[in-house]
Design brief:
CATH class: Mainly Beta
Distance between the termini: 54 Å
Order of helices and strands: HEEEEEEEEEEEEEEE
Number of strands: 15
Number of helices: 1
Structural class: mainly beta
Strand order of the largest sheet: 2-3-4-5-6-9-10-11-12-13-14-15
CATH topology: Outer membrane phospholipase (ompla), Chain C
CATH architecture: Beta Barrel
Helix content: under 10%
Mean pLDDT: 90
């Protein structure tokens, strides 16, 4: 009886150790890296519009809360997203009034499987977005809202699935988003997405990597329209990890800020992004 008990205890200890080797709480990196040209990604940085007195400020991050390695090359993860993107203007005396700000928070699930030169994976998000005008949208001198646009309720809760395939340094993806709830209610609930990114590893040095990314979203904003985002730049640091990127972005489509959701926007910008 005592011998059987010792065997059971040893088996239990071995099972716990084996499980811990596969389970990691707050891993150091992300299982699924953000998609370079996708607008709805966590960023810490800024984009300055060329020819316009406007700039975008991004503050936020995504973290993996835990990851589970089914095998060394097959990994599942669960994480959280919290970030904002804000529209600012530049004024004298180093003032940057905030016109509009959008908030995103939610959870995500990631899965990837690595083969010899190929990687297959997907990211699934459950998220909320809300948008707001801020004090910089109000003209204190005229006591009026800028462009006579008053605050409106804009929010959405959505499900987003983006499967991808990576071959060496090229990653391509498609995506589908379904809005579970949206205000204003006349906005359509289905959005579609396709894109790619390529990192020119070892083109300059191991830690200085040029990249290009393109993202196309087909959004149902009372009717289907295309949002185009092209990013070209250089990343200093780890290609799939920490570093800083300096890049040019061209965007055309519906305005990325919810309070301006019905307006068309074309912009060229230069900026930077910190990957932490």
């Amino acid at each position: 009886m005592k011998k059987k008990l010792r065997i059971l205890i040893l088996f239990f200890i071995f099972s716990v150790i084996h499980c811990q080797s596969k389970f990691e709480l707050f891993p150091s990196g992300l299982n699924i890296q953000p998609f370079t040209a996708n607008i709805l990604e966590p960023r810490i940085g800024s984009l300055i519009q060329l020819g316009e007195n406007e700039l975008r400020l991004d503050i936020g991050n995504s973290i993996d809360i835990f990851s589970y390695s089914i095998t060394e090359k097959e990994i599942f993860s669960f994480g959280a997203d919290f970030f904002t993107w804000a529209l600012l203007r530049s004024e004298k005396n180093f003032h940057f009034p905030v016109d509009a700000v959008d908030y995103l928070f939610g959870i995500n699930f990631g899965y990837k499987k690595i083969f010899e030169n190929l990687e297959l994976g997907a990211r699934f998000r459950i998220s909320h977005i809300s948008a707001h005008f801020v004090d910089g949208h109000y003209d204190n001198q005229s006591q009026e809202w800028r462009d006579d646009l008053r605050p409106q309720v804009y929010s959405r809760e959505f499900l987003e699935l983006i499967p991808y395939i990576r071959f060496e340094n090229l990653r391509g993806y498609i995506g589908f988003t379904y809005l579970v709830h949206v205000d204003p209610t006349h906005i359509g609930k289905d959005n579609y997405q396709i894109g790619f990114e390529y990192f020119f590893e070892d083109f300059i040095t191991e830690k200085i990597t040029p990249f290009i990314g393109y993202d196309l979203k087909i959004i149902n904003n009372t009717k289907y329209t295309g949002n185009n985002s092209l990013s070209i730049g250089i990343k200093i640091g780890h290609t799939n990890g920490r570093g800083i990127s300096f890049y040019y972005n061209y965007y055309s489509g519906k305005n990325i800020h919810g309070e301006y959701y019905s307006q068309n926007k074309k912009m060229s910008s230069i900026g930077f992004n910190l990957d932490l």
